[in-house]
TrEMBL record:
Gene transcribed to yield this protein: rlmL_2
Stated role: Specifically methylates the guanine in position 2445 (m2G2445) and the guanine in position 2069 (m7G2069) of 23S rRNA.
Family: Belongs to the methyltransferase superfamily. RlmKL family.
Cited CDD domains: AdoMet_MTases (cd02440), THUMP_AdoMetMT (cd11715)
Keyword Transmembrane: no
Protein name stated in the entry: Ribosomal RNA large subunit methyltransferase K/L
Pfam families found in the cross-reference section: Methyltrans_SAM, RlmL_1st, THUMP, UPF0020
Location within or outside the cell: Cytoplasm
Organism: Pseudomonas fluorescens
Amino acid sequence: MSDRFELFLTCPKGLEGLLIEEAVGLGLEEAREHTSAVRGMATMETAYRLCLWSRLANRVLLVLKRFPMKDAEDLYHGVLDIEWQDHMLNDGTLAVEFSGHGSGIDNTHFGALKVKDAIVDKLRTPQGDRPSIDKLNPDLRIHLRLDRGEAILSLDLSGHSLHQRGYRLQQGAAPLKENLAAAILIRSGWPRIAAEGGALADPMCGVGTFLVEAAMIAADIAPNLRREQWGFTAWLGHVPALWKKLHEEASERAAAGLAKPPLWIRGYEADPRLIQPGRNNVERAGLSEWIKIYQGEVATFEPRPDQNQKGLVICNPPYGERLGDEASLLYLYQNLGERLRQACLNWEAAVFTGAPDLGKRMGIRSHKQYSFWNGALPCKLLLIKVLPDQFVTGERRTPEQRQAEREQAAYDQAPSEPQERQYNKNGNPIKPAPAPAPVVEQPRLSEGGQMFANRLQKNLKALGKWVKREGIDCYRVYDADMPEYSMAIDLYHDWVHVQEYAAPKSIDPEKASGRMFDALAAIPQALNIDKSRVVVKRRERQSGTKQYERQAAQGKFVEVNEGGVKLLVNLTDYLDTGLFLDHRPMRMRIQKEAAGKRFLNLYCYTATASVHAAKGGARSTTSVDLSKTYLDWARRNLSLNGFSDKNRLEQGDVMAWLEASRDEYDLIFIDPPTFSNSKRMEGIFDVQRDQVQLIDLAMARLATGGVLYFSNNFRKFELEPNLSERYAVEEITAQTIDPDFARNAKIHRAWKITAR
């Protein structure tokens, strides 16, 4: 074989520029950049060195042959012509990877099969010995790339991808690959900072990938020094003596690096379940003397190396791929910005995020940004020098203001002077006055955010007297009052429930997201609510029972008060909370009219109307619903108020239940869904189509002199006119809309129905 080989180094998209610098530094010649790859010429020594030392490559491919191909036969014969007995034993194991298409090959599996057939046919012995396939740990891993009619056949020297260093056996929910983490560290300037003796801290370290990669860079440890199995281990062209020499040199460099005083490298993680896996990864990497991991929240993050030492804060915050993550993520990024300003002045910071708009919410400017890809997700690396004049306040400041900020920061960091002890006239020491509580810095709102906050405060003030007079604990404070901020905001005691309406397709998603973040930043300040008590959901057009499906599984219930009863709401797990706020007037009406009556609640949901009826002195209540989950919730609501007796809960399809029932009721409430196709019921319920049958069945159970209240929230609903021919029907919608829903009078419609 030749003394020089053509190599392809593959890498994640976006790392090509960094990889070519690294590869040239390790000896690659005639280097050229390709998409997700670097190509060049090298000796076998350089090829081994790249395998051992590349922090950024996925694979090191040694090109065996290039040949033109027009069809599958050209492919087969091009591979067959290689002297495969120079590369592997005829009873060895083999794996083939194929990429690209064209030249009559549009299926990569078929292409790989033709390559495998050619190799096997070449090595088959008269006795029938032939290579077998082993996709996990083959002796030889072959790669063929088809590019515009040219086949490039390569031997994979790396074996398993080089990002698999071997130390990370335990992972978090969304770990960065090791080579991407190394690239981020290099772009962030960590090699320079480490050479200067700087510190490194990760306030959201997960299982410690940044920490380990940073320590290996600082200690001059080859990233794959501990790997035992390589793609060239069983290759017949392998030169063991050359590899041994390079490996021993790397081992000596690692020993010398680890003998130096360790740098201060610390990780903090809020999730206690990740602490031990992170520490285990550090131990497997042999870096326990260099790295320490502690449990800690971002809100209290404060790196504490030696007094005057500076360094790099680096982190990969969550991106928010689930609906409802917006609030917690916004406040997480705000907390991160606050901690950088307050605890990391004159440090450098690097924030890697797949949600750049959230990065803007930190309130601190980045001086550089780099684009990366985390798998298929485009991401940004924000580089920040944490200096006073980097702080974003939402308005342009004068040089005098910046100077004042610098002076204030210097004053805040200076050690305080010891105070002289004071004594009273009796000679006893006077206790100093307690220090004032620290002022919590509120993020400065954008112009849009301030406008939104003003509207919330205006609404809060307008509803204040009514809320206080009626003793209302939970109510709607905003409902898309401003079209560009399309959401509903409800207060549940000291919690805020935000429902974001899906933006129409005509709205730029980036602008819609920006407005949402503006609103979320404004809500805690405007409503004087702790930001940890803001829950966000997205309400879209629902189909079937989707609105009742579980969104999360926290199982956390909050107790609220309404009309003298206590009710349980769940703000996180379902799209609806267990309490329809717009039906408050109807529930209060039922409470006032229920004394001594038999009350029937159909499609009862969590039976809040039944609790009100019991509070009003109902002789009995019966609540019917198909969902066991909601009936269990209803049982808790009744028990919470001491109404477990004389209050029946019935599980069943309402229509079938009414047909089977023979009991009479004096007061009936029906609030049916718009549509239901539950597996527990026969057929499909459609409120517009089935309203007459439903009301007739319910009226058959209504006692003489009784009242039936019927309501629903289907915006296009029209009550069938022929019902008025048989019953006395009065629309009472206006009487069932409280001030907090006055702007949204179509939230529901309601009727009072009695026998003629």
